[in-house]
């Protein structure tokens, strides 16, 4: 009861702070607010949970960044609180070196990303050169899996080398982090004592395009999903093997690819040209995401991606794109979050365009000019792979710009 009373006091305190900051009026710029959820917290009759979630809904309805993390409630064990992560690609899995599920003070030490479409096209061209166009599809898939497995092992070797180099540095390389206890486990002597609790991440890019190359459909189809799971299982199995073998936290990483989505595609097009449904854009699709141009509902997108997020232990996200009008329909917002949590999505986000008139403060999805006062000085915020930017056309390369522009709204629910 004492802990419940403390939480109630915090809820009241948070509501007062939000009111003072005028959160429920106009647009609020906040890098990231994360609501940590267990499966019962938004469905039971507990007054604290209900009040907190209601407060959260009211607040995030004016935010651009809506993040939901499906984790257990705060668990107090020997005075250690298990905190959630504050970023989709900084998630840490179970620590093999003693901290178990503790998140606070750990991080993604070094990642490397495998560009899967390149491996798929290399495999396919070699088979066509050897056997002609009448090849067996299973033979193609088998050869791709062998090449991918080889690259995963190469990625492991690269990460081990990079990890050793990072560990060879002195604490002065990140003096603030080590002197102020930011890195959990630091013994004051060797930074390896802290870094061994972090993640060595093996990432991937372009699952959708990879499937198109191999079987001419993506994971929005039953056939595509079957192969997608086979690919993701390979990543997961190898990372688990490496974790046990080297006593380091290897994990599957669903790469955000802010720049790589464009640079990898550019190189691909130089070598293989523009191929319909594969390289006829300026970017590769991020990790296991559904291609952004495919029309579907929020629940359909969640249904697809939730089948794959469980393979990742080093960072992933599932998101849906909604119209700005969702701020007037908080019940719909809640139903979407509930659905994602029921599907065991570990990290969920809702993207909403939120423009603001700099003259009168009107907030919504605004076209050329403010419908209230006619002003054309509009501040436009968009969430792009976790970042808020006032003008994504200057903040990101042309590939990521095109990806943002091609995003459809998953609006029917």
UniProtKB/TrEMBL annotation:
Entry-linked InterPro entries: 4Fe4S_Fe-S-bd, NrdD
GO cellular component: anaerobic ribonucleoside-triphosphate reductase complex
Superkingdom assignment: Bacteria
GO molecular function: ribonucleoside-diphosphate reductase activity, thioredoxin disulfide as acceptor; ribonucleoside-triphosphate reductase (thioredoxin) activity
Species per Swiss-Prot/TrEMBL record: Schaedlerella arabinosiphila
Name of the featured protein: 4Fe-4S ferredoxin-type domain-containing protein
Ranges for domain 4Fe-4S ferredoxin-type: 346-381
Biological-process GO terms, alphabetical: 2'-deoxyribonucleotide biosynthetic process; DNA replication
Pfam families: NRDD (PF13597)
């Amino acid at each position: 009861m004492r802990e419940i009373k403390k939480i109630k006091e915090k809820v009241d305190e948070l509501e007062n702070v939000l009111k003072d900051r005028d959160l429920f009026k106009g647009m609020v710029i906040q890098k990231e607010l994360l609501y940590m959820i267990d499966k019962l917290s938004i469905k039971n009759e507990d007054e604290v949970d209900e009040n907190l979630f209601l407060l959260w809904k009211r607040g995030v309805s004016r935010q651009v960044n809506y993040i939901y993390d499906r984790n257990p409630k705060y668990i107090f064990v020997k005075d250690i609180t298990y905190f959630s992560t504050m970023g989709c690609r900084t998630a840490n899995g179970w620590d093999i070196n003693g901290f178990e599920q503790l998140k606070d003070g750990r991080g993604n030490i070094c990642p490397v990303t495998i560009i899967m479409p390149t491996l798929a096209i290399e495999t396919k061209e070699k088979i066509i050169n050897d056997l002609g166009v009448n090849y067996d599809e299973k033979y193609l898939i088998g050869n791709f899996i062998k090449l991918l497995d080889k690259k995963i092992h190469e990625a492991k070797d690269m990460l081990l080398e990079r990890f050793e180099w990072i560990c060879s540095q002195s604490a002065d390389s990140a003096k603030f982090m080590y002197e102020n206890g930011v890195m959990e486990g630091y013994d004051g002597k060797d930074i390896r004592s802290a870094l061994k609790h972090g993640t060595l991440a093996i990432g991937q890019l372009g699952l959708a395009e990879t499937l198109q190359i191999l079987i001419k459909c993506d994971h929005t189809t039953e056939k595509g999903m079957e192969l997608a799971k086979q690919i993701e299982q390979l990543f997961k199995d190898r990372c688990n093997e490496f974790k046990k073998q080297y006593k380091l936290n290897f994990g599957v990483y669903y790469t955000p690819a802010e720049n790589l989505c464009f640079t990898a595609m550019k190189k691909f097009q130089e070598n293989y040209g523009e191929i319909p449904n594969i390289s006829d854009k300026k970017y590769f699709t991020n990790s296991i995401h559904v291609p952004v141009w495919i029309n579907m509902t929020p629940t359909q997108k969640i249904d697809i991606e939730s089948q794959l997020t469980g393979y990742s232990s080093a960072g992933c996200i599932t998101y849906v794109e909604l119209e700005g009008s969702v701020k007037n329909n908080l019940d719909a917002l809640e139903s979407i979050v509930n659905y994602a949590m029921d599907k065991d999505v570990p990290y969920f986000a809702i993207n909403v365009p939120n423009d603001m008139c700099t003259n009168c403060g009107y907030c919504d999805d605004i076209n050329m000019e403010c419908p209230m006062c006619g002003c054309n000085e509009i501040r436009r915020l968009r969430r792009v792979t976790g970042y808020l930017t006032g003008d994504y056309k200057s903040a990101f390369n042309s590939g990521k710009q095109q990806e943002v522009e091609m995003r459809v709204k998953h609006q029917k629910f």
